[in-house]
Amino acid sequence: ENFKPAQVLNSLKWPDNHLSTNRKLHFSFAKDDDDVHFEIDSLTGDIFLSKELDYETDSHFLLQVIIKELNSNPPQNNTVFLSIDVEDKNDHSPYFQDDFVVIGIEENVPVGTLVYTFHAKDGDGSFLNSKIQYSLEMNNRTENPFFIHPSYGTLTTAFPLDREITRSVIFTVSATDQAINVTDRRLDSLAVKIVILDINDNSPSFMSSPLSYVMEDVEMGFLVHHIIAKDPDEGRNGQVTYHILSGNENKSFILDKITGFLTTAQSLDREIQERYSLTVMALDDGSPALSATQVLTVIVLDVNDETPMFLKQFYKATVRENQDPGEFVIKVEAMDRDAGLNSLLHYEILPGAGYEKFKMNLGSGELTTTASLDRETQEVFSIKGSPPRSSTAQLYLTVLDENDHNPLFAKTQYQISITEDLEEGSVILDLYASDEDDGLNGEVMYSLIDDTFGAFAIDSVTGSIVTTKALDRETKSQYTFRAVASDCSTHLPRSTTVSVVVYVDDVNDNDPVFLQNPVRVFVPAETAVNETVATVRAEDADLGSNGAIVFNLMTAETVFQIDAKTGDIILREPLASKDFDTQLLVTASDQGISPRTATAMVIIFTEEQEEEISFSHSLYEASVPENSAAGGH
């Protein structure tokens, strides 16, 4: 196609057997094949190029040549078809439609992902001259993460991408044809920029310290800490907001979610809480969002804002009496909720009654005596102690007892009268002995010594004397024994003894008893009136009116009369006959409030009767087994 115009391309030759020296020929193109690219010499048949050829426009021409023999009559025409093939010349360079291409690709695509397909065109017609091969050249020495297929122009990822390491890649893509002659090969280049698009593949990371300090007396709104977290992702994927997940349940702090400023929302008090563990989250704005957490420790520093406080507002202690000075009494303790030097305490005793008898250790709070104490003189001391910042506590000190006193009864002897009809277990006397000592030394227990014949016992705690059996004045009318009051000291107990006399008073608990019953009396028929014919006798074991006896006849009687005091039976009328006999029922009654009575029979007759009492046998014999039970018949 690079053949120059006016040059002979070819020459039509007539075959040798047709040649004749005198033959006159005329050459021409058929009118239909009149082409501007070729001309033919009408005399010689030489074909000339009249216009440059372009293989890419026309690569083949078919020309019809008409040959006229002018010598013939009539003239003869011959037609020849001439086929012309235009050979391609590598006269076109490959070309891209764009000079610069910007391509975006997400950073998380897998290796081998198709990024872009380059299309370059070449105007040459033949295969090799228009066959394009692609290549890639980096503009700098950075690692090339891409691969271009030399034949297809497909650009794919050769390595994993990471926007946070490489945000973009710029390189040149060349398209080169494959002309046989290497020196004739032509090329075109295209600048390419690959922008690696961000994917939210990075979590925020904290840059700020996980430890912060703040004084406890800062005002509300004080900046405690600036929380900083970075996210290497781009745009919203790298925009971080801050949130408190836990540890702020009492709402002590406020966290600005945009700036990360942590400020106080209320007053702090180290003595209530000296450490806060806040779980803080940094959250990006990607979809899905990624986050990171950090445990932020906020340590509240001490300010001397606390007054010392005793562990007790009221202390009780005891100390033994009669001890040498320097005796340990008690150790009082106070605490100051401040820390460090702010919590160091000194102790002292405030002036007051009896305080000079004690000394307080300035540093330890131990209280000791400076003099010997006497419980019976002063048993209780009330002392106030104070740390330097005005907190006070009351110490109630009791002097412990030594067993230096005997129990004391109110009397040296007790006499009591009781009636003999008291029930068993009745209290007859409440003894009480006091002991000035304290505790077990002053606790009194009671007991009886001497023989009470089983009639009395004493309650060891209350001192009440009670009967332990039924009493009988007629058997024993007086008891004398001793009661003992002893303290309960575990070391050398002390005691006191007192005499107790119990008189048993009489009650009307015995009936009169006739000395003889029945009474038989022989009265001669000639006995004179007003003469005592018989006397009945009776006794009563009771005392006084309870034992004074009065006699009476149960039925009215005119012949006989009885003397109420002496029991003499007196004849009041003469006897009616010599064979007179009668029976009198006589009562003997005591003079108690509820009198008791006994009855006897008096038999009176005028003729003496002999009565003989005799056994039926003169000798009685019996045998008893040696182990027979008592009462056996």
TrEMBL record:
Keywords per UniProt: Calcium, Cell adhesion, Glycoprotein, Membrane, Repeat, Transmembrane, Transmembrane helix
Residue intervals passing through the bilayer: none
Pfam family name, one: Cadherin
GO cellular component: cell-cell junction; plasma membrane
Protein name per the record: Protocadherin-23
UniProt xrefs under SMART domains: CA (SM00112)
Source organism phylogeny: Eukaryota, Metazoa, Chordata, Craniata, Vertebrata
Gene3D superfamilies: Cadherins
PANTHER family, per the entry: DACHSOUS CADHERIN RELATED 2, DESMOGLEIN FAMILY MEMBER
Annotated organism of origin: Acanthisitta chloris (rifleman)
